[in-house]
Amino acid sequence: SIPMISPADVGGYAAAVLAEEVEARPIHEITGPASHTSEDIARMLGEILGREALARQIAESEWLGALAGFGFSPANARHMAAMTAAVIAGRTGAEGEMIHLPTTFSEYARQSLGIEQG
After folding, report:
1. Which residues face 34 on adjacent strands?
2. How is 21-60 classified by DSSP, letter by letter?
3. Does the predicted model carry a pTM greater than 0.85?
4. H-helix or E-strand containing 4?
5. Closest by alpha carbon to 101, among 13, 1, 2?
6. What pLDDT digit, counting tens, does each position of 15-42 carry?
């Protein structure tokens, strides 16, 4: 499982840093409120959408092709694949105090899909 963080939370926090509304520090390590597996995400999306959603893993050798199919440029696909490999290998741990931002994955998904909390 890996931490999930809302893009809106990231943007809001970055804006607060730029506006000097948060403590100045050289590195701001931010995370979401919880970590989830791909199966967790599929289950939550299925609940939100009211239908089954399945998580399917693909081999690392297929990552670049899959990312290109999602619209990533070749350079961005390489960077995303490298980042994904680093996360899976555990090379991305926090170096300092984590700042937990509030939006859960379910809240983010509902907001992004325009679905009211039910």
Report:
1. 4
2. -S---S--EEE-SEEE-HHHHHHHHHHHHTS--------G
3. no
4. strand 2-4
5. 13
6. 999 999 998 888 999 999 999 999 999 9
3-class secondary-structure state, position 1 = coil
Q: Identify the bridge partners of residue 2 per DSSP, sorted by sequence position.
A: 36
Tokens of 76: 């961005």
Burial 94-117 (b: 16+ CB within 10 A, else e): eeeeeeebebebbebbbeeeeeee
CB atoms < 10 A from the CB of 5, how many? 19
| 51-104 per-position pLDDT tens digit | 999 999 999 999 999 999 999 999 999 999 999 999 889 898 888 889 999 999
Amino acid at 21: E
Q: What is the DSSP letter of 90?
A: T
* Confidence label for 47 from pLDDT (cuts 50, 70 and 90): very high
